[in-house]
Every structure is written in structure tokens, then in C-alpha cells.
Amino acid sequence: MTKTRKPLLKYRRVVIKIGSALLVDRATGLKKAWLDAMCTDIANLKAKGVEVLVVSSGAIALGRTVLNVPAGALKLEESQAAAAVGQIALARAWSESLSTDAIVAGQVLLTLGDTEERRRYLNARATINQLLKLGAVPIINENDTVATTEIRYGDNDRLAARVATMVGADLLVLLSDIDGLYTAPPHLDPNARFLETIAEITPEIEAMAGGAASELSRGGMRTKIDAGKIATTAGCAMIIASGKPNHPLAAIEEGARSSWFAPSGSPVTARKTWIAGQLLPAGTLSVDAGAEEALRSGKSLLPAGVRDVTGSFSRGDTIAILGTSGREIARGLAGYDADEARQIAGKKSAEIAAILGYAGRAAMVHRDDMVMTGKRAQEGGSRKDEVHA
User: Fold this and answer.
1) How far is residue 359's CA from residue 354's CA, in Å, rounded to a whole number?
2) Which residues are CB-contacts of 389 (< 8 A; sequence separation ≥ 6)?
3) Confidence category of residue 211, pLDDT binned at 50, 70, 90
4) For residues 52 and 21, what is the distance between their CA atoms, to the nearest angstrom?
């Protein structure tokens, strides 16, 4: 089916990435009027039922302004010190501006490693989803006080894409100091042609990426295209738009120039390939007939249905699920370490706290982290599996 562009209000969950140069003026610091306008746009989206997450750059840029660090390249330790000061100021600014519309902000500091290592990925996702459930707006930033290569190369575009895929967003908006993708850097080539719709990120599209455009911006079109590959492969559309005007989200909604990247036509297949084929299972869970049927109808795997646990795995590792025939019927990400899984196997979810000493997750493997892989994977509950895979 052909993917078509739609207004922001038609999306369910939107991740907005904001570049440093939009938030911080090198001479005067925080652009409060711009931030207030942006928060009004966010409030309007939330009022219409759209869930909003923000990946906000600006901690280092704001910190160096507060500390009065001279212009020019920073050493690693200088960047980290600036981030330590800037993160506090940035979080306070977002909190104050969003509170004008009675919206609560929640700060989440991540590195790329937090979204790549399974255990940390699950924890970060759970925290962010809980913030959204409670009606807060997660304000996510790279944890630049401890990051190293991230500071040197600038990965908040890719971090935003990873966050979008992690929380199942259906749109990623990259707000920058450029209004979209051109066939060549427009500040270098007067004949550069603007591209409004990108159906697929091809090698030719990748070749169009340029470098960073300003001192405060650590990314460039290169990282935006990389972000597009991450997001669209997972079924998330992406928009690159200028954030320079006040109310940039309202401007996009009203038809301002921007580049729209279509989501993949088969994101579920890509997700299933990632879980089922690219990761070797670290252990197995054998289940009874009742659990097997529940899995085939799209349900999570509860401890009560588990009959045997093998292997040495940690929560978040990939494990194989074996049916009554002894054959693999599914793979998923473990909700518990192997030792804990053995203790609660065959037990009711209500007994978990008494056995382990803490209130753990109800599911041994959650349906959102599972894909059916056996012979009957396309039967019974395959439609529901596809929704949650």
C-alpha cells in the first residue's frame, strides 16, 4: 500500500527532535520566546490526543553560555562540564515552559548504548511509556556528562530515531536550521533542488547528505539520513523541517516546506527479522499446551505456563520458546534473568513478589517483545502478533 503524508494531528505518537541552535543563542543563551511557542504547539497536539516526546539538544550549548566558555571547539572534559551545568538549566527551562499549559515534564538522560543494550533498552522504554501513561512529556537528552564519542560526533538525530522505534512512535520530526533535504547542500550549491517526499532512502539519497551547518549544531544531514533509515525501517515516518520560526509544529501542520520520509511498507517483517534471525537465543523456555495456545492468539507468556528453563541469560536477552512438541514456536526478549525465571516457572503472576522479594513484571516474555517463529506462526493469532511485534 502506498504511504501518504498526513497532518501531524493524524499521528498517534510523535517524537520531536530539537537542535541546539534552535534553543540557544551563543551570545544571549536560552531562546525563551521560541521555547514557549514550541511548548504551546506541544500542548495543542496533546489536547488533540497526540502523545508527544521531545529529544532536546542544547545542554552543552546552554552550559557553555552559562559558564561563559569562549567560542570554539571544546575538549572532551570541557564538553562534559558544560553538559553538567546545561542539563540542569535545560530541564528547568522545559519544565517551566510546559507548566504554563499545566503539562508535567519528565527528564530522561540516555546514550546510544542505553537504546542498543537490551537490558537498558527495556528499562528506558518502560520508564518513558510510564511517563506517557501518566500524561507527562518526556524530555530526552543525550547524557553528555558521561558520553564520549557521542559528544565528538553528535548523535541526537540517531538517538531520536532510536527513541522513536523504542516507543513505537509513528512519526519522528527533526527540527533543524534547514527546512528539509536538498540534492546538495543549498549553502554551497545554488542549483540544489529541494525534495518534498522521499519514498525510500536509497544510496543516491544518502549521497546528498552534507555536514554540520553551525558551531552549535553537532549533527548534519548525514546523521538525519541515518536517523531516517532507523525510523522508516521500523515503520515510523520522518519529517525534516525548519525550526527557526516560532510555532514550528503549527507551521508544519499548516503546510510549511518540509521533507517527508515514508515509513517502510513492511516494518513488522523487519522487526521479526531482527528478533527471530539476527540474535542467537541465550536460553529456552518450554511451555505447556495452554500457554502455547495463548501465545498463538497474541498473548504474553506468563510464568504459570512455563514448564522448564534452560540456559544462562539475563533480562532482555533473546530466548527461544519451545512448544509441547519440543520445537521452537517463538522467540522473544526475556523479562527475567534465568535464575529468577527458574524460581517462578509454573507459578501464578500474583506469587512473583513473594518468591523473588520484589514486584516483578507479570509476563515472563511480553507480547511486545515476542515473535512467533514456528510452523504455525501464520495461523491463529498471527494478526495480533504482527500488531505487537
Assistant:
1) 8
2) 268, 271, 272, 275, 368, 370, 371
3) very low
4) 21
Set of cell numbers at residue 137: 512529556
pLDDT at position 95: 97
Spatial separation of the C-alpha atoms in residues 308 and 267, rounded to whole Å: 33
Q: Quick one: 278 exposed, middle or buried, by C-beta within 10 A (0-12, 13-18, 19+)? A: exposed
The one-letter code for the residue type at 98 is L
For residues 171 and 5, give the distance between their C-alpha atoms in angstroms, rounded to a whole number.
11
Mean pLDDT of all residues belonging to the chain? 84
The conformation of residue 69, written as its DSSP 8-state character, comes to P
Query: Using the 8-state DSSP alphabet, how is residue 365 labeled?
Result: B
Give the 3-state secondary structure of residue 41: helix
pLDDT in tens, 10-52: 999 999 999 888 999 878 889 999 999 999 999 999 999 999 9
pTM: 0.70
How many other C-beta atoms lie within 10 A of the C-beta of residue 158?
24
Q: What is the number of alpha carbons within 13 Å of residue 160 lying toward its C-beta?
A: 34
**Cα–Cα distance, 148 to 144 (Å, whole number):** 8
One-letter identity of residue 50? V
Determine the pLDDT at residue 147.
60
Residue 215 phi/psi, 5° resolution?
A: -60, -40
- Alpha carbon 177 to chain centroid, angstroms: 22
Query: Which of 243, 326, 296 minimizes the C-alpha distance to 22?
Result: 243
CB 115 within 8 A of CB 129: no
Secondary structure of residue 215 in the 3-state scheme: coil
- Residue-wise pLDDT for 349-377, tens only, equals 999 999 999 988 899 999 888 888 764 44
| DSSP β-bridge partners for residue 17 | 55, 174
| Cβ contact 69:33 at 8 Å | no
